[in-house]
Amino acid sequence: MLSIEKTLNAWVQRWRERVDVPLRVCWAVGEGGARCWDLGRFETPRVTMTVRDVGALPALLAPSLDTLGEAYVEGRIDVDGDITDVLDVAHALVAAAREPQRAHGTLHRLVKAFTHNRSLDRASIQYHYDVSNDFYAEWLDPAMVYSCAYFENGDEDLAAAQRKKIDHILTKIRLQPGQTLLDIGCGWGALVMRAAQAYGARCVGITLSQAQYELARERVAAAGLADRVDIRLQDYRDLEGTFDRITSVGMFEHVGLKHLAEYFGIIRRHLAPDGWAMNHGITTTDAHDGETPDGGGRFIDKYVFPHGELPHISTVLRTMQEGGLEPFDVENLRRHYVLTLSHWSRTFEAKSERLRRLVPERIWRIWRVYLAGCAWAFEHDQISLFQVLCRPAGRSAHELPWSRRWMYAAAPGAAT
Fold this sequence. Notes:
Elements: H1 2-18, E1 23-27, E2 35-38, E3 47-51, H2 57-61, H3 65-73, E4 77-80, H4 83-98, H5 118-129, H6 133-139, H7 158-172, E5 180-184, H8 190-199, E6 202-207, H9 210-222, E7 229-233, E8 243-249, H10 260-270, E9 271-284, H11 296-304, H12 313-322, E10 325-332, H13 334-350, H14 352-358, H15 361-379, E11 383-392
InterPro entries: CFA/CMAS, CMAS, DUF7884, SAM-dependent_MTases_sf
GO molecular function, one term: methyltransferase activity
EC number: 2.1.1.-
């Protein structure tokens, strides 16, 4: 114990010299009660980190977002305090830890190149989305839309902003009554249900998540839309037929960097010659398609989205063109995702006790860190969110509207 205490005393002294953070660190390994140190020189501690296992020491001595996150998820440390303060303290520690390295050049981000196939992608999707429908329902909006909302004025509640997001997409693709719509990665069915109810479309939604598939079909049937909405448990590579409109919301992050051109090519192959498509997805802000810095990407890959890969928007546009689609309009919704994730994280925190009864403690910890951490990353421009509207390449330019005004008016043929 004396050697551990000596190590921790030295560690606290080094950190006090580097950074002033409102953090109290308590060592609670073994018997004899906890021994605590305050790292802040001037601030009163707002976050308490309690070390429960000696295996957490490497994360303290050389902190990164993935090592700290892993220590928390695996129960080696506990943290108490407002989750936003927890994230601020974690990032401050990580930034201070890498400070001496800056003189040696910019830290490189790892660029992953996973091999994707049907079985691997299905397993990855089901790992993330099949946690529990009841779990997701607790902190999502009533329609269970699990993607960036659209805050037209900034003061909408989450349910209204998610409905506006769906309408924003369906307006952009100029969805008309009687047209066919394919939604790749349909989640729990909110977009296709809205497209059928309010826009008069005939819809197909596909997902690889068994839990989403089952609940989406139940919701479609309960809404009396089974004759207009078909939910399928299907891989996008197994699609058949042609559709007037195609949407993909929060799905292409699972495709893989090496497969983006193929993915967009499949969309082009199934899109009618005069059709429109919309890709709504998360991107990295690293121009070389690198993962988020300081270990954040490694944590996400290990615990949240296995084999997920984020392209830069330039890569999205290039591979979209390679796939035979002309990017027509690009909109950055990064700040909208900051607000969306803040809503999710606040609700998650408010319902923590109930959520902990719905899933194992480890899962609860993963999602707690993930939601708050992503809000921080979007706020600080480490990741972004783009909607890209596109059409088959080679179409006449005279067929296109002259201004963007139509994207913000009622969609042609949309019901009120």
